[in-house]
Amino acid sequence: MMEGRKEGNGTRPCMAAEERLEALERELAKVKRRNRWFLVVAGLSVMGSTLAALGLTPTFTNTASADQGQGGALPKTIRASEFIATDESGRPRAVLSATEVGPMVALLEQSGQPRVVLGVSPNGPSLILYDENGKGAVSLNATGGAPALSLSDAKGKMRAGLVVLENGAGLTLSDENGTPCATLMASKVGPQLRLSDENDEGRAVLAVIKNNPFLNLNDAVGNPVWSAP
Question: What is the CATH number assigned to the segment(s) 21-52+81-218?
Fold first, then answer.
């Protein structure tokens, strides 16, 4: 059986693999920050719904008079900055709005809580599914050249994230505090697995780089204590 060693040629490739995994986790953190844009948009939709319920929603005049039909026919084009669809009880259930950050469609439950939000920000399109407590449970983003899918728990902490980067794809699993604890990445140089402690310190890195396997074990502050080969 091949012995491991604390220092040697095997350490540097593994450290490079760990750096790539850390870059993946940073990208997933960006995805999480992008989701905050939809929290703002969802808030705008609730505000619009509240105004509608109070009868304070502005009325919009059709400015596309040139597109109207003759003889009382329905207009071909209606222009407005927001449309609100209500149910038979007058409760807003769907909102189509042109906000300052981009167009947005929100589907609301009876209480007015958004459950589905689809929108386009300056960074690109995103879709978020909310649970009954208003926490973003599922998020799909195609922004910044890095399409990503994230799954969150009942507290809104992201527990699983999948992202496709320019040089590979990765999967990150996080603990109940939202701290990444396992990251798997498939890049041009080879597959890599990083296991972290509760302080997000990489404690074990397993990688295959240029058809050569490597294993690196680190202490609590990230210093290599064992590696193979």
Answer: 3.90.930.1
CA 181 to chain centroid: 18
Q: Calculate the CA 16 to chain-centre distance.
A: 26
The residue extents of the domains of the chain are: 21-52+81-218
Chain segment 101-141, per-residue pLDDT in tens: 899 999 999 999 999 999 999 889 999 999 998 888 999 99
Helix, strand, or coil (residue 102): strand
Per the CB < 8 A criterion, the answer to whether 191 and 185 are in contact is: yes
Using the structure block, give the residue that is written with the tokens 């140089």.
189
- DSSP letters, 25-88, are HHHHHHHHHHHHHHHHHHHHHHHHHHHHHTT-PPP-----GGG--STTPPPS----SEEEEE-T
What is the rounded CA–CA span in Å between residue 227 and residue 229? 6
pLDDT digits (tens, 9 = 90+) for 43-65: 444 434 333 333 333 333 333 34
Strand partners, 209: 212
* Cβ neighbours around 46 below 10 Å, total: 19
d(CA 147, CA 213): 29
Alpha-carbon distances of 36 from 98, 126, 169, 194, rounded to whole Å: 18, 11, 23, 27
Cβ distance 184 to 3 under 8 Å?
A: no
Q: How far apart are CA 176 and CA 61, in angstroms?
A: 50
Residue holding tokens 């599914």? 129
Whether 67 and 75 have beta carbons less than 8 Å apart is answered as: yes
